[in-house]
Every structure is written in C-alpha cells, then in structure tokens.
C-alpha cells in the first residue's frame, strides 16, 4: 500500500488530467479526481470530495491537493465532516507539480508527512543543498565541477552520459527520484536534489548530456550504483527508429 492522493479542482477535466499525468509516474499509487460540481459544471462538490477521500484511503493516509481558493474551503469542510482525521492532510502546493512530486514520493513508499513535503517543495528553488565545508574542500581539489568517478571528500561520485534518445524526461526523472527517495542518502545530480522529480526535470538534460552525481550518507554507494545502472540501461527505453 501507499499514500493515496485526491485532486480537487473546479474543473472535472483538469482534475482528471492531473490524475492521468501523475499516474504515469506512479502506477501503484491510488489517485482520485474530485473535480467539478455534482451537475458537471465548474465548481467544487463537497460530496465528490468526501467520496474521493474514502476511495483514496488504502491504509497509509491521503494527501489532498487543490487548485483555487474555494477548492481549499471545500476540502477543509470535507475534513471537518470527517472529524479532521489524522491520516488525511491538505497540501499547500501547486496542483500539477505538487501532484507529480507527491505521486513519485508515494510510489517510493514514503510516509504521509514525506509525501506532503514532496508536494509542498516541488517548486522549491533551494532544492539543491549548499555544499558543506568538507564538500567545498573536495571541490577545490577536483576542479570546478567537484565531481569525478569514485570517492571525493567522503562523497561517492560519478560522471555519467545519458544514452536514451529522450534524455532525462519525466519518466526517467520519476524513476530516479522515486528510488533515491527511499534511500538514506543526500544526492545531487548536476547540482539539484536527486530525490526531487521536478528539479531533475528542470535540468532538461538530453541524450549525450553528462550527469554529475555526488552522494553522501549510508546509502551513498547504493544510490550512485542505481543511477549508473539506470543511465547505462537507457532507463529501459528502446532507441528511436
């Protein structure tokens, strides 16, 4: 089981579209759309939201994401009717980016609190962690990039070349972020948080691009080995004809 997601929007089509997109990143996560009014108009429905909350709860909790202000009010009203259950949280997050980030985190088996944080920091420009003094020293020793294959300043590092035709697009980014998010590791890929699907997608790294990987923590070697294997395998994607 995993944390379920409820997408509340004034538009039934928008809610369904967000669910469709997020589901591509997290096929094992329960995502439920609660969009539009009961008569298929634009607006929100308390009954739809309450039904969605019940459908999305598979035992590990539910995160609710909304679009506009009154959708938040409807979601809050639904939670009040249910007695404000501790296993249901409302995210203060952008709808699309937050849903994708939350779905990837949920797919990795993350807790409800971690899934909420993933949604709420999906567009955090500070996702890349600043270098510690030890990391800075390692960078000074190895050049401006600070990344060479092997171990530098206590970190496990690698330089990898993307071979799949579409590069680091949404699905490979979700593969990396989902797997790395379940590890006890601090990992950066080209300077951004390797556990954030949205930040990985901002790299816009195409075929032939280099990925400079740096990891620290108990799972550092396992994390770098996973990234290396995924990249070398082309993320399982066939070459374009």
Which descriptors apply to this entry?
single chain, 241 residues, alpha/beta, Rossmann fold, 2 domains, 9 helices
Blueprint of the fold:
Blueprint: E1 4-9, H1 12-25, E2 31-35, H2 46-56, E3 62-66, H3 69-81, E4 88-90, H4 95-107, H5 112-120, H6 133-142, E5 150-152, E6 155-161, H7 170-181, E7 186-189, E8 192-193, H8 197-202, E9 210-216, H9 220-232
Parallel strand pairs: 1-2, 1-3, 3-4
Antiparallel strand pairs: 5-6, 6-9, 7-8, 7-9
Helix pairs in contact: 1-4, 2-3, 4-5, 4-7, 7-9
Written description of the protein model:
- This protein is α/β, with parallel strands linked by helices.
- It contains nine helices and nine strands.
- A five-stranded antiparallel β-sheet has the order 5-6-9-7-8.
- Helix 4 runs antiparallel to helix 5 and helix 7 runs antiparallel to helix 9.
- The longest helix has 14 residues.
- The two termini are 38 Å apart.
Question: What is the average per-residue confidence, as pLDDT, rounded to a whole number?
Answer: 87
Determine the oligomeric state from the structure: single chain
Principal-axis shape? elongated
Strand order of the largest sheet: 5-6-9-7-8
Helix content: 40-55%
CATH architecture of the largest domain: 3-Layer(aba) Sandwich
Strand fraction: 15-25%
Quick overview:
By secondary structure, the chain is α/β, with parallel strands linked by helices.
């Amino acid at each position: 089981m995993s944390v379920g997601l409820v997408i509340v929007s004034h538009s039934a089509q928008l809610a369904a579209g967000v669910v469709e997109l997020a589901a591509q990143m997290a096929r094992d996560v329960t995502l439920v759309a609660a969009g539009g009014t009961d008569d298929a108009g634009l607006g929100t429905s308390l009954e739809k939201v309450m039904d969605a909350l019940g459908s999305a709860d598979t035992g590990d909790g539910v995160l609710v994401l909304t679009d506009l202000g009154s959708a938040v009010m409807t979601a809050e009203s639904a939670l009040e009717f249910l007695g404000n259950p501790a296993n249901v949280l409302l995210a203060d997050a952008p709808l699309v980016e937050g849903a994708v980030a939350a779905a990837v985190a949920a797919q990795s088996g993350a807790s409800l609190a971690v899934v909420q944080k993933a949604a709420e920091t999906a567009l955090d420009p500070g996702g890349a962690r600043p270098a510690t003094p030890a990391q800075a020293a390692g960078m000074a020793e190895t050049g401006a990039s600070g990344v060479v294959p092997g171990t530098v300043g206590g970190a496990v590092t690698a330089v990898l070349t993307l071979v799949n035709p579409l590069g680091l697009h949404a699905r490979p980014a979700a593969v990396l972020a989902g797997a790395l998010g379940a590890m006890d590791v601090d990992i950066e890929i080209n300077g951004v948080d390797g556990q954030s699907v949205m930040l990985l997608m901002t790299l816009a790294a195409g075929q032939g691009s280099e990925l400079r990987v740096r990891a620290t923590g108990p799972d550092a070697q396992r994390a770098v080995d996973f990234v290396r294997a995924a990249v070398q395998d082309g993320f399982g994607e066939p070459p374009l004809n």
